[in-house]
Design a protein that fits this description.
Blueprint (H helix, E strand, L loop, with lengths): L1 E5 L5 H11 L8 E4 L11 H13 L4 E3 L7 H10 L2 E4 L4 H11 L1 H11 L1 E5 L1 H4 L26 E3 L11 H11 L4 E4 L3 E6 L2 E6 L2 E5 L2 E5 L1
Length: 217
């Protein structure tokens, strides 16, 4: 399993790590995009177009968009497995979990993780871990837990101007209530999961356990 879990658009350092994990030159890397999580989010979507543009400039292979709700599971599997990187964008994590379950894609993920690198930004990263004890989503879509492929919860965008100032304090409090780590990461940081080991790269990220910072970049 090779995962790149981040807040926002990848930095040059994160791009280099993705290339390393894939094991082929950037100009030959194929990417398939999943962006269902953005659907229930109203407002300016420049962040999404910025992400698309970053992928187009960073990787020279085929770039596909896989609309999970409009394709059968066999076609989804075919298109996803053709790619080197599955890039799952952010939005509502609870809605994304609902869609992954509804379409059957969640059941494909163990197979996908054997072959592909998963790059998740914001919701696309959070959905693979534990669901935090407090949710920022207004609508849960019946979601009470995330996929738990990794045994931690993730709080992206910490220290960003558009995130509530008390979010970091909530991360500390959550870490004291849970038997797993909580990661607080900025928009320039990523958690890399490789060979069952998780570690931070980039800038301004923390692994917090029982209210204590045990790893930091």
């Amino acid at each position: 399993m090779k995962l790149v879990l981040m807040s926002a658009v990848n930095t040059p350092e994160i791009t280099r790590k993705i290339v390393e994990l894939v094991g082929k030159p950037a100009e030959k890397i194929n990417v398939v995009i999943i962006n269902e999580a953005s659907a229930p989010e109203a407002g300016d979507k420049r962040w999404l177009f910025k992400g698309f543009d970053c992928i187009a400039k960073s990787f020279g292979g085929e770039i596909d968009i896989c609309q999970l709700l409009h394709l059968g599971i066999d076609e989804i599997e075919k298109r996803v497995c053709k790619a080197d990187v599955i890039w799952c964008f952010g939005g509502s994590t609870d809605y994304l979990k609902f869609i992954l379950d509804k379409t059957g894609f969640a059941k494909l993920l163990p197979k996908v993780f054997e072959e592909n690198v998963w790059v998740g930004s914001s919701a696309g990263a959070c959905v693979l871990g534990n669901r935090p004890t407090f949710s920022v989503d207004k609508e849960t879509y019946g979601t009470d837990e995330y996929l738990r492929f990794v045994n931690f919860s993730l709080r992206p965008h910490i220290w960003s101007d558009y995130v509530a100032k008390d979010m970091y304090g909530k991360c500390l409090a959550e870490s004291k209530r849970q038997p797993y780590p909580v990661y607080a990461i900025s928009d320039e940081c990523a958690i890399i999961v490789e060979n069952q080991k998780a570690y931070l790269i980039g800038k301004r990220g923390q692994k917090i356990e029982n209210g204590i910072i045990t790893e930091e970049v």
